[in-house]
Structure formats: structure tokens, C-alpha cells
Amino acid sequence: xxxxxxxxxxxxxxxxxxxxxxxxxxxxxxxxxxxxxxxxxxxxxxxxxxxxxxxxxxxxxxxxxxxxxxxxxxxxxxxxxxxxxxxxxxxxxxxxxxxxxxxxxxxxxxxxxxxxxxxxxxxxxxxxxxxxxxxxxxxxxxxxxxxxxxxxxxxxxxxxxxxxxxxxxxxxxxxxxxxxxxxxxxxxxxxxxxxxxxxxxxxxxxxxxxxxxxxxxxxxxxxxxxxxxxxxxxxxxxxxxxxxxxx
Length: 247
Known about the structure:
By secondary structure, the protein is α/β, with parallel strands linked by helices. The protein has helices at 15-19, 51-65, 78-88, 115-125, 128-137, 139-147, 149-156, 169-173, 204-214, 228-242, and strands spanning 2-5, 29-30, 71-76, 94-100, 191-196, 217-221.
């Protein structure tokens, strides 16, 4: 069984970009939509968006459909933080874990995630067109655009997704979470960290901190600004190699 966990403001369909052709034939894939994402209708209160709460919900879904066999987890961004929590929970036998473009750190609201609450507050007070103009004026968005226009443009979709305003709490609350305590991030299974060049939302220094905490191998993809198709092809190739032999 493979558990695939998407990122903040994304949905389960995004995992196809990372996993298409990378999963061995016959392996069951569970790719849930997290709370207030995709087809998941639940929204809730601030406490529902603690990383531990989100990880528990994903774990409950895995209990519901799993067969007790070892679990492989692939998590992207927010999904990487949840993957680490689930892997360390002891709820499931593990095969291996891939942490893709980690963004969360040992601090709440690190600088690389500061743009998400900005977007959440704009969704609270403005219609999408005005919110987009205000986003472009914000220092948080401009700092990202200065390093990577592709990632800055990608953030604009947070304003236009279905139910974006109704689900804005996810952007306000989730980045407030710390993902681990220094010295306590240990995963009892083979683990790899996959990162990207010039990715201000998922910066290399964050991935390097995860690598060092875990004692894991880290590989770095081409930059999104140099070609999104090539970047995703790289991730699929690396994940395909890492996932050989899972059942």
C-alpha cells in the first residue's frame, strides 16, 4: 500500500504529477484529499488544522482501506510533514518514506510559508480580482517572485480555487504548525528527501535541515522556472527508483 499526501492548498490529483509511472504495477495507492482540500467537504475549527490532527485523519483513512501490510508514504510539502508524523506514530508497519519538497520546519510560520496567511486574509476581505492585485503588492509575494516567478504564479491559484474563500482557514492555520522538534525527527524506515533548486516556498535549507535531522539521503531536482515538465519528470524518475520492490 502506498499513501500519497498532497500539499497545502492542493489536492490529491496533484500527486499524479509525482507518481504517474513511478508506482510498481499492482500496488494500491491511497491519495486522500485532506480536510478542506479537493473533494473533502470538512472544514472545521482552528484545532482541526494542527498537523497531528490532519495526520490522524489521513491515518484513519489508511486504517479503513488498508490490509495491514507495510505502508510506503510519499508526501509533498505539507504532505511531507504529515508523512513524517504518520511514520513516527507507530500505527502502521512501514516499508519506506519519501519526503518531497518539505516546507515546514521546527518553528511555527517560517518565513517561506508567510505568504499563505497573507492570502488567507485577502480571501477574507476581498473578491478574487481585488485580492490578486493586493497579493501582487504584498512583500511576501514579491519576495517569492524575485526568486521564482513560476512559484509566485503558482500561488495565485490559491485565490481562484473552488471554495477558496470558504476554506481560507487552512491557509491561516496550517502554516502556524511546527513539523518537528530538533533532535527528535527519526523515521524507522528507509527515507529519502527530494528537493528543488530555486524554490522559495520549499527552500533548499529547509530540505537540508530535514536531511540532517533524519540522516537521510537528499536529491535535488532542476528548478521549476527552467521547465515544469522536466522538473516533474525528474521527480517521477527518482520516486520510481525509490519505490522499486514495494508491494
